[in-house]
Write a structure and sequence with these properties.
Blueprint: E1 5-8, H1 11-21, H2 30-52, E2 65-70, E3 75-80, H3 87-95, H4 102-116, E4 135-143, E5 150-155, E6 160-166, E7 175-182, H5 192-203, E8 210-213, E9 221-224, H6 239-248, E10 256-264, E11 270-277, E12 292-297, E13 300-303, E14 317-322, H7 331-336, H8 338-361, H9 363-377, H10 380-383, H11 388-394, E15 396-397, E16 407-408, H12 409-414, E17 423-427, H13 431-435, H14 441-445, E18 450-453, H15 458-462, E19 473-475, H16 501-514, H17 543-551
Parallel strand pairs: 2-8, 12-14, 17-18, 17-19
Antiparallel strand pairs: 1-6, 2-3, 3-7, 4-5, 4-7, 5-6, 8-9, 10-11, 11-14, 12-13, 15-16
Helix pairs in contact: 1-4, 2-5, 8-9
The structure holds adenosine-5'-diphosphate and magnesium ion.
Adenosine-5'-diphosphate (ADP) binds next to helix 2 and helix 3.
């Protein structure tokens, strides 16, 4: 017989497992949702592959998820007749970090743990690995659709796993079986009542039917019918239905901050159901900037890679179900399809339009969205030329006048001081450091509001836009601050004296001493307390952008 092969998890997976196993988070239920969501994904992937290769379905065409409990043995099985995994796919998917964000994610969990105790861990959607919150041993047996061999994977979640070939008798005829050996304090997950209520509550809208076998030998009962929630009229659906569907997508634990559900008719017919989360997912700043919208054609899942929204809306989760595309739509077709182009445009307008509406009707929810995703939406300011003005109007800022709140540019411009012709900003670093910058002194003395741009993305858009409502953006670290024309709040300081001879002497001295390390030395209106500050020339990159470019080696 072939020996099972033992392997170590990638370092970050091992760390993640350790965190999972030692989690004292009370809401362990999420593991079940994650496993069911994977099973549903596998069924949908098979349905898609079968469009081209119908033989993959064999004599078992109906997708199905079965949950089998064995309370006496404290065992729980989640099985699907989906696409399955080959041995190599198992090693890749369950032993390494498929998602480049895992490292960042582990760091975030650790930070959260230090701050708030272990409570938070279970709230992060961690997919498959969440099984180790309730099990001390997890076995996976899988047979890829169309393959005549099977493989098994097993781990105790302590740093290693092993893979081995499995006999066809012990494997499902097609798809994946996940077997959990439950921890003593997780025994309830082998009880009918817990399973039934948890599955109905968490996975009630998963688009694949779910069956339950309450103990070995018992008959399977259907718990949910796998109907596509998005095809039902809005009037029939409650907020809770939507929230459950959203969480059933996997990886999310929060409430959606905003839900967009509509059917487009006319030239293109499609249904869209999209959610804006209320908190940042851990992979939001992954370099691949992958979107989270799935494409369906007449209820058949096609791909999650169709770029149904621009990258700066990649945090929006959900799906589009098109009635116009052919089922056998190819990758190239997806990229070039004018139908998808039109859907993309319609959906983008709709999502942005609804966020705009929210800003007017429900400021608190809007601010939740802006706090979480503003830094991403602002990428659109330089990427989406067509919607620049719209996005700029939507943007909110911390400013020297905002306190802990947010200000729009419309508000900023409405409060311009007499003779003020520009929108001033200070970019780079943390907000508190920005607030303490000496560059602000002269502005503060005149009551001139300054935008505090602390997101890395800010230095990019702010230098490429012409301005807002005819007012250009101007860095307070750049060139002459032309503040002389704006009166100081404290009139006693008003009579700005001519530069006294001693200052002129000092400037001459500083110029000689610093030589060609500086382009110029000048007396300035912008300081009231600090003796000196560095500024960038009027034209060219501002100080923050200079730093970013320098650190990028340009
Ligand atoms: P995600 O679902 O976000 O990709 P998971 O940790 O939940 O992350 O799952 C990791 C990967 O393992 C999946 O992307 C998939 O390739 C594979 N996988 C997990 N469960 C199954 C299953 N039941 N059938 C087929 N593949 C699976
Ligand atoms: Mg998953």
């Amino acid at each position: 017989p072939i020996q099972p092969e033992s392997r170590a998890f990638e370092a970050d997976v091992a760390k993640l497992l350790h965190l999972m196993v030692h989690s004292v988070y009370s809401d362990k239920d999420v593991f079940l949702r994650e496993l069911i969501s994977n099973a549903a994904d596998a069924c949908e992937k098979l349905r898609f592959e079968a469009i081209e290769t119908p033989s993959l379905l064999g004599d078992d065409p109906q997708p199905r998820i079965t949950v089998l409990a064995d309370p006496e043995a404290r065992r729980l099985v989640v099985e699907d007749n989906g696409v399955g995994m080959s041995r190599d796919e198992m090693v890749e998917a369950l032993g390494t970090i498929a998602r480049s964000g895992t490292k960042a994610f582990v760091e975030r969990i650790e930070a959260a743990q230090q701050k708030e105790g272990a409570q938070l861990i279970g709230q992060f959607g961690v997919g498959f690995y969440s099984a180790f919150m309730v099990a001390d041993r997890v076995e996976v047996v899988s047979r890829r659709a169309g393959a005549d061999e099977a493989a098994s994977w097993v781990s105790d979640g302590k740093g290693t796993f092993s893979v081995a070939p499995a006999s066809l008798e012990e494997a499902p005829a097609r798809g994946t079986r996940v077997i959990l050996h439950l921890l003593e304090d997780a025994a309830q997950y082998a009880e009918r009542w817990t399973l039934e209520s948890t599955i109905k509550a968490q996975s009630g809208h998963v688009p694949v039917p779910i069956w339950l076998v309450e103990k070995p030998g018992a008959e399977a009962v259907e718990l949910t019918d796998g109907a596509a929630l998005w095809t039902r009229p809005k009037s029939e659906l409650t907020k809770e239905d939507y929230a459950e569907f959203y969480r059933g997508l996997g990886g999310a634990f929060d409430e959606p901050a905003m839900t967009v559900h509509y059917r487009a008719e006319g030239r293109h017919e499609y249904t869209a159901l999209a959610f804006v989360p209320s908190s940042q997912p851990f992979d939001l700043f992954d370099p691949d900037r992958k979107g989270r919208m799935k494409l369906y054609v007449r209820r058949v899942f096609i791909t999650d890679d169709a770029e149904l929204l621009p990258r700066y809306l990649r945090f929006v989760r959900g799906l589009v179900d098109s009635a116009d595309l052919p089922l056998n739509v190819s990758r190239e077709m997806i990229q070039e399809s004018p139908i998808l182009g039109a859907i993309r445009k319609g959906l983008t307008n709709r999502v942005l339009g609804d966020i705009e509406k929210l800003a007017e009707t429900d400021a608190a929810t809007f601010e939740t969205i802006w706090s979480a995703f503003g830094p991403v939406i602002k990428e659109g300011l330089y990427e989406d030329y067509e919607r620049r003005a719209q996005l700029l109007a939507l943007s909110r800022f911390r400013t020297t006048a905002s306190g802990e709140g947010w200000r729009s540019l419309k508000e900023y411009v409405a409060d311009l001081k007499e003779n003020q012709t520009a929108i001033y900003y200070l970019a780079g670093g943390e907000r508190e450091r920005l607030r303490a910058s000496p560059h602000l002194e002269g502005f503060r003395a005149r009551g001139v509001e300054v935008l505090l741009l602390s997101d890395p993305v800010d230095s990019f858009w702010v230098t490429t836009l012409d301005g807002f409502e005819g007012k250009p953006f101007k860095s307070v670290t750049q060139g002459n601050a032309d503040l002389a024309l704006i009166s100081k709040l404290d009139a006693a300081e008003e009579a700005a004296p001519e530069t006294p001879p001693s200052v002129a002497e000092f400037i001459a001295f500083a110029k000689t001493a610093l030589g060609d390390q500086v382009a110029d030395v000048r007396a300035s209106d912008r300081l009231t307390e600090s003796p000196v500050c560095l500024v960038a020339p009027d034209h060219g990159p501002d100080r923050q952008l200079e730093k970013i470019l320098a650190s990028a080696g340009r």
